[in-house]
Amino acid sequence: MWAVARRPRWIALLLLALVLAAVFAFLGKWQLERSIQNGKPLPATTETQETLDDALTPMRPVTESLAGQKVTVTGTFVAGDTTVLTGRSGGGTYQTVGHLVVSETGASLPVVIGWSDQRAAAVAGGDRLADGETVTVEGRLYPEESPDQDTYDKGEYSAVAPARFVNTWKQFDDRMYLGYVVADGSTAKAADLGTIADRAPTREVQFDWLNLFYAIEWAVFAGFAVFLWYRFVKDAWEREEEDRRERLHSADGALVDRR
After folding, report:
1. CA 167 – CA 172 distance, rounded (Å)
2. Which of 70, 28, 20, 255 is nearest to 181 (CA)?
3. One digit per residue, pLDDT tens: the chain, 259 residues?
4. pLDDT at residue number 201
5. CA-to-CA distance for 50 and 233, rounded, in angstroms?
6. Is pTM beyond 0.90 here?
7. Its topology with respect to the membrane (predicted)?
8. What are phi and psi of 28, to 5 degrees?
9. Of 114, 46, 121, which is closest to residue 77 (Cα–Cα)?
10. Are 179 and 69 spatial neighbours (Cβ–Cβ below 8 Å)?
């Protein structure tokens, strides 16, 4: 059979099959990468602290790559604009959100300051920082939450939703950061509140099973391209062998007739 395979026609067909197999393998690799794309960990740059204005500008949403970014921001908390949320993870029955006016831009930024199990203490913690002094807050930046995410119960809210804050804050000039900062322990301590349990963002590796199936499918196609060449060569060899046997049989019959 391999004598047939070495003929120029079949060598050319083998090269074509290998090219097709390479294309299919590339497509399979691409689909495999797509299947785990969502499982890649967030960039390590989130652990390199930046100023807020280097990371984000007002009225621009926080992208996925920025979620959890360590930032530092300087500004003044607005008196009377302290908001208390409940039903959130990270510690405490109540979490205090302050309205920070950023010194660099004058835009508003919600800051989750800390937590307390007493509502009055949570409010007092926010008021303690809203004394007109300029403060520097260090923490992690997160995308804004929607009012639709609120688990509203008895007049209490749970979402850090700038879209709702604009209707409750007393001092607001229409410029806002479309995200919020969870402050670290130094800010919580200054407010005499508990520190929100916040850590470096991670994502578990998760497969997109549909893309994984496509990757396997392309691998099968790559193997099939080479197998198809083998099948064609074998069929050609079998036909030639059958023709040879028929000729031999015909020749043997002719010799018998002569006898």
Report:
1. 9
2. 70
3. 767 777 888 788 888 888 888 988 888 888 877 776 655 555 556 778 899 999 999 999 998 878 889 999 999 999 999 999 998 989 999 999 999 999 999 999 999 999 999 999 999 999 999 999 999 999 999 999 988 776 655 667 889 998 888 888 887 778 899 999 999 999 999 999 999 998 766 655 556 677 778 888 888 888 888 888 888 888 888 888 887 777 777 765 555 555 5
4. 66
5. 64
6. no
7. Multi-pass membrane protein
8. -65, -40
9. 114
10. no
φ/ψ bin of 193: left (φ > 0), alpha (ψ from -120 to 50), beta (otherwise):
beta
Question: Could you tell me the two tokens for 25?
Answer: 């393998």
Specify the 3-state DSSP secondary structure of 142.
strand
CA distances from 124 to 76, 83, 175, 188 (A): 16, 11, 26, 12
Residue 255 CA to residue 259 CA, distance in Å, equals: 6
Q: Give φ, ψ of 128 to 5 degrees.
A: -60, -35
Residues 6+ positions from 18 with CB-CB distance below 8 Å: 225, 226
CA–CA gap between residue 143 and residue 10 (Å, rounded): 60
Tokens representing residue 258 in the block: 């002569």
CA atoms within 13 A on the CB side of 150: 17
Rounded to the nearest 10°, the torsion over CA 142, 126, 199, 152 is -60
Residue with tokens 């590339």: 26
Contact 106, 175 (CB under 8 A): yes
